[in-house]
């Protein structure tokens, strides 16, 4: 945010846990939670979406059990996988934009998933509406002077490289899976 802080702040960022996808993903999430729990110096732990694999309540409950020791430090925004199935994203938030503060850290959280649930695994491209952008700007403007301000969302603001064969194929077919989220340019301009 370019602001001077009274003391250093430390936070960890995790994304795409996909709890419930396989025993390997669950073990990796367990190891991640254990390592972060051992870092007593962290002010916050940011989880930016795709917490679950299919949005089920069982997968969400497993995430909550694994990250329970960090519950007071957690800042979680949903991803498109969390919006699928049983819509675990609804347990994360009912808002498109909200603020979480942890000491000197001021997180503007944005639910950048498309506003539908059933096809969320296939319709994974992100969206920030004009109202979402306006709400994020207002949240930034009212941030306290002495805080580090950070925008947290699941979908990327810049063109990404495909990280799987499926994404590579989708990119070749000009599907928007690796394109910036809809509204990214407007958000960055504001």
Summarize this structure briefly:
With 190 residues, the protein is of the alpha/beta class.
Structural account:
Helices cover 31% and strands 16% of the residues. It is built from seven helices and six strands; from the N terminus they run βαβαβααββαβαα. The strands form two sheets. It has a three-stranded parallel β-sheet with strand order 1-2-3, with no helix packed on it. Strands 4-5-6 form a three-stranded mixed β-sheet, with helices on one face. The mean pLDDT is 86.
Using the alpha-carbon principal axes, give the shape: globular
Strand order of the largest sheet: 1-2-3
Give start-end ranges of low-pLDDT stretches: none
Q: State the share of residues found in helices, binned by percent.
A: 25-40%
Q: What is the fold's blueprint, element by element?
A:
Elements lengths: L10 E4 L8 H15 L6 E5 L8 H10 L7 E4 L2 H4 L5 H4 L4 E6 L2 E6 L19 H12 L6 E5 L12 H8 L11 H6 L1
Parallel strand pairs: 1-2, 2-3, 5-6
Antiparallel strand pairs: 4-5
Spell out the key features of this protein:
190 residues; three-stranded mixed β-sheet; single chain; 16% strand; three-stranded parallel β-sheet; 6 strands
